[in-house]
Amino acid sequence: MRPLDYRTCHLARGPDYDQALADSPFDAFMCEREAWILAGILAERFPDGVDRYLDFACGTGRIATIVSHFADQTVGIDLSPSIVAIASRKLPHAQFVVADITRSLPALEPFDLVTAFRFVGNAQDDLREAALHGLHRLLKPGGLLILNNHRNPLAAKYLLSRLARRRIDGRLDLTLSKLEGLLGRTGFEVEARWGIGWWVIAGSRMPWNGVRMRRELGGKRQRRWASLASISPDMVLVARRKR
Hints:
243 residues, 7 strands, globular
C-alpha cells in the first residue's frame, strides 16, 4: 500500500539511496534512459544554456549532476537533510535548500527550468498537487518543468501481470492521462513526452539491450515512441508554465 504521506518515508532515505537504484537492474536502466533523454531535451530547448535551474526533490543530486553542466546557477530543494548533505558533497558549486515547498516557499528568485524526478510517482495525490502548485510559483512565466513518472499502472508489463493474476506494486496509480490532468489543473501545459521501457513485457530477467534502445530513441524514432508513453513503465514529460 502507498504510505499515507510520502514525506515520512523520504526523510529516512540517505546514503543507501544511490546504491538501491544501482542494485535494481530495471531502476538502473530507467535512470540511464532518463539521463539520455534529459540531455537531449536540454540541448534542444536550451542551446545557449539555462540561466537559473532548480532540481525539486533533488535527492542525492542524480538529476542535478546532469543539468548543472547546462546551467549558470543550480539550486536543489529537498526536505531530507541527510540526502541534501550527500548532494552538497557531489555538487559543491550548487546551492541546496532543505524545505517543504508545499508548506512554505523558500525565498528564491524564479527559475527558467525545474526538474522533478522520482517524486510525482512516489507521492500521494494531495502532495503531488500541492508540490506542483509550489513549482508553478517558483517558475518564471513560460518556464519549463521536466519530470518523470515511473508508476504507470497501464504499462504493458503490469497489464500482463494482472491478466496472469500476479501481484503488482500497490503504488502504481499514476497513468499518463491522470498526470496530464494534474499538470493542467496546476497551471502547466504538456509539450512533449517520452516513453521508457514500453517494450518491457517480462520481469527483471529480461535482457537489457542498450544498443537497441539507443537506436529506438534516436532522431525521428525518439518522437515516434512518444505516443507509447501511455503504456510505458516510466516516462519523461516536458511541461510549460502557462503565463
